[in-house]
Amino acid sequence: MENPSQHHRNATDRRESIIIALRAEGFLSTADLTRKLGVSHMTVRRDLQHLEQTGQARMVYGGASLSPPVLHDSGRWVGSSAVDEARIAKCAATLVDEASTIGIDAGQLGYEIARALPDQFNGTVVTNSIPVIQLLMSRPRPPRVVGLGGELLPDSYAFVGASTVAAIDRVRVDTVFLAIDGLDDRGAYAHSDGQASVKRAWLNVARRTVIVARHTCFDDSAPLLLGPLSRFSAFATDRRPPKAVERALVQRGVTLLVTEEGHGDPAPGTNGAEHVRSSVPSNGFGS
């Protein structure tokens, strides 16, 4: 029987209390919330379902955590379950070895790659993204996670700056998944100095670099060059690049992974992607 406490009798009050508690703790089990609120297990589940539907919290195994931040700038996050980003990430995650050490960049595509890691992944994840850390640590069997500190950007919950670059310089990863803003036949680009310095640092410590982006990157005017195409091992996106860009990728041995043109469900047996490979080795990923 529910505790008739005046403080938590109102659903709005209860849900506000849940969000305040999650901000303080990061994760709370259903049992913890039942005890704190003095209500039944089913009432807590209904409250959590409401908070998840409104994007304020995320139900995970055994309880709840805060939802990742939702950004609204052009070309940025449009929601934690954006279809294009999820498909790109699922495609890119097929390149992960189950016991490897991987780096995951900040932003929605980084978050979606973390979501796409197989349940059996038991390697190490290095990241500068708080949402990625929260997501992975909420798994029933979380992998080893190494968080990179620095200056925290409040809009993306990502660490950037000189301290983050220094932290990256002290690690080594097998594969890094790098979100980019722009791509042409010369190379990949980022919008800001803070982003660019961190992404360039990732490039220097990874044996392989997988770049990920939506097709809008082909028209994006991001000005800061991260590196030439020859620095990258693979590129996952939702539509085929313009012919000049695709030709340049092939010539430089970059494995191109394209989801089903951004429309419909993946064809059977394709893992959600069309593989467009060069006639030369693809920087360690094979054919």
3D architecture notes:
This protein has 287 residues and is an alpha/beta fold. It folds into 2 domains: 6-66, Winged helix-like DNA-binding domain superfamily/Winged helix DNA-binding domain (Arc Repressor Mutant, subunit A), CATH 1.10.10.10; 83-276, Rossmann fold. The protein has helices at 6-9, 11-25, 30-37, 41-53, 83-93, 108-116, 130-137, 162-169, 193-205, 243-251, and strands at 27-29, 57-60, 63-66, 101-104, 124-127, 144-147, 151-153, 158-160, 173-179, 182-183, 187-190, 206-212, 224-228, 234-237, 255-259, 273-276. The strands form 4 sheets. Strands 6-5-4-9-12-14-15-16 form an 8-stranded mixed β-sheet, with helices on both faces. The longest helix has 15 residues, at 11-25. Residues 1-7, 70-81, 262-273 and 275-287 have low confidence and may be disordered.
Note the topology.
Blueprint: H1 6-9, H2 11-25, E1 27-29, H3 30-37, H4 41-53, E2 57-60, E3 63-66, H5 83-93, E4 101-104, H6 108-116, E5 124-127, H7 130-137, E6 144-147, E7 151-153, E8 158-160, H8 162-169, E9 173-179, E10 182-183, E11 187-190, H9 193-205, E12 206-212, E13 224-228, E14 234-237, H10 243-251, E15 255-259, E16 273-276
Parallel strand pairs: 4-5, 4-9, 5-6, 9-12, 12-14, 14-15
Antiparallel strand pairs: 1-3, 2-3, 7-8, 10-11, 11-13, 15-16
Question: How many domain modules?
Answer: 2
Structural class: alpha/beta
Shape label = elongated
Strand content: 15-25%
Task: Label this structure with key terms.
single chain, 287 residues, alpha/beta, Arc Repressor Mutant, subunit A, Rossmann fold, 3-stranded antiparallel β-sheet, 10 helices, 23% strand, disordered C terminus
